[in-house]
Amino acid sequence: MGWKILLPQEIMEEGRKLLEDAGHTLIDGRGFETKDVLADMKEYQPDAMIVRITPITREVIEANPNLKVIVRHGAGFDAVDLKACHDNGVKTLYAPVANSTSVAETALMLILECSRNVTVLHNTWVQDYYKAKLKVRKNTLNGKTLGIIGCGNIGSRLARRALAMEMNVLAYDPYKPAADFPDGVEVVRYLDRIFRESDYVSLHAPNTPVTRDMVNKERLAMMKPTAFLISTARGSLVVEEDLYEACKNGVIAGAGLDAIRKEPVDPANPLLTLDNVIIYPHIGGNTVEAAHRASYFAAMGVQEVYSGKEPTWPIHDVDYATAQTYTDTKKPDTKPAGMFDF
């Protein structure tokens, strides 16, 4: 007979086709908000759900005793109440590699835009061409140091791209053995070193009790006054009030953000007033190619559970406070070209 599968947000055609060909009934949700999903849960009592951006609360999960599986359309899953799923026997899956390349490219794009001071250039060059051309600060990436916090699927992809641009790459990830870091990366086991030595600090860690508010006034003060903070991870990792003060007062050179605490953005967010801060509307994983992959992988996960197979990408409950950590290190195998190499 197949399952009833709720889609609060649309998925791409190949995901729909996989599910419809398997005999499932797809229900297009009435809206993006949690209250909309709650209403759909109560009315349709679906067996499964593929969710993209809506926060899924305990109330939503417990409104439908028929619910068997939730699949997160992408890599991040902090918007889903995993404990409530566990308590109610609901399997949770995700698509961790579907958008990794797209997010890594977004981080690199933010690094490049910060290095060329594009916001100031955009606001200056029409009115004062020569000021924009000759007076506005611009830097090359060659020979600069990138510090990556969280070297999983996305951080590793960014590291390889930065190495190809002849940057020095430091990476911190206490839950990963040194042998699993990309070749050419220097493994760092002391987090503060990332902030002290990097010209660009790029965040790629999940939202956990350990990482929440990790970028605060104290850590920003460790950074070089010429350094930039880059975040394509989660807004909760950064204390925005502290970042605003640091960017406004020249503690750091600026920031490039694809994730902030309140989304959609509050027009009164003071970060919007600074010309050394770039903010995107959380678009890192929203390329056409990533959407196609995520839709297919998410649909595949539903079908795997329906068929009684072990799912490829289950979400594992991890207690980050007690999870195994590593202290081994390795030096990069090759040293990138210096700033005066051609």
Protein described:
The strands form 2 sheets. The protein has a 7-stranded parallel sheet, sandwiched between helices. The protein has a 5-stranded parallel sheet with strand order 2-1-3-4-5, with helices on both faces. It has helices at 13-21, 34-44, 58-62, 82-87, 100-115, 118-124, 129-135, 153-164, 191-197, 217-222, 240-248, 288-306, and strands at residues 4-7, 25-28, 48-51, 69-72, 91-94, 145-149, 168-172, 186-188, 200-203, 228-231, 254-257, 277-279. β9 (200-203), α10 (217-222) and β10 form a beta-alpha-beta unit. The relative contact order is 0.16. The protein is 33% helix and 14% strand. α1 packs parallel to α12 (288-306) and α5 (100-115) crosses α8 (153-164). It contains 12 helices and 12 strands. It is globular, with a radius of gyration of 22 Å. By secondary structure, the chain is of the alpha/beta class.
Question: What's a concise summary of this model?
Answer:
The protein is of the alpha/beta class and 342 residues long. The protein has helices at 13-21, 34-44, 58-62, 82-87, 100-115, 118-124, 129-135, 153-164, 191-197, 217-222, 240-248, 288-306; strands at residues 4-7, 25-28, 48-51, 69-72, 91-94, 145-149, 168-172, 186-188, 200-203, 228-231, 254-257, 277-279.
